[in-house]
Amino acid sequence: MARQKNSDKEINIVSRNIRKYREQLGMEQKELSRRLGVASSAVSNWETGFSKPNLDVLVPVCRILGITLYELFGVDDPRANMSEQERLLVAKYHELSEGHRYAVDNIVDSLAAAETMDSCPELTRLTYFSRQLAAGIGDPTDLTDEGEPIYLYSSELVNRADYVFTVNGSSMEPEYHNGDMVLISRFPECSDIREGEVGAFIKGNEAFIKEFQRDGLHSFNKRYKTIHFTEEDKVFFIGKVIGILDDGDIASDSDVRRFLAAHESVIV
Asked: Mean pLDDT of all residues in the chain?
């Protein structure tokens, strides 16, 4: 149904424009028919929309009426906004052999890729763990082998991070809220955690974001008890919490696609 409507619209535009440009020249329908070598009724049928010219007659129609195919079909001529230099380059391109055109195409593709890279926002790829801190996460030894890539807009803080975790619960309010995505600089790349610093830890089968103190892992929310541990307890230090992500820190899908395309392109 949609195709039929588009076809009807195309006929109407061509019909209207043949009549428009013919009348501008003061040319009779019979004269246009004679010069095209078609039946005398053909032009009348075109202009009323009863039929439309065959493809092989479109160019002669345009030549006689002194118009372009773009004008006949009522569309913008892409060359209209070209500079004289651009027109000259296009003309020279058409004079090249097939092999030389191929070489030019490769050069243009390479330059376009370089332009894309220059205009592409700088992104940083980190590892995002969908499992939440402060909830049972399973075997902690598989931490380094899981996670999925997350692309963030680069900044001094983001570039210092390695992991992104999601906070679960209210134990670290008011500083860290449920659902916050936190940046973590992993151990051992980061320095040992000191008293009063916030880190990500695994004790037994649970992961926590807590403030480290000599006597245990503390919550900012006083309703939660301190997590104590002894030398026999298996407590793993994942890394330091160095910041909280805002929604605007996460790269948009379009920027990620541009970033990947720019960095995966090969300059020849």
From this structure: 81
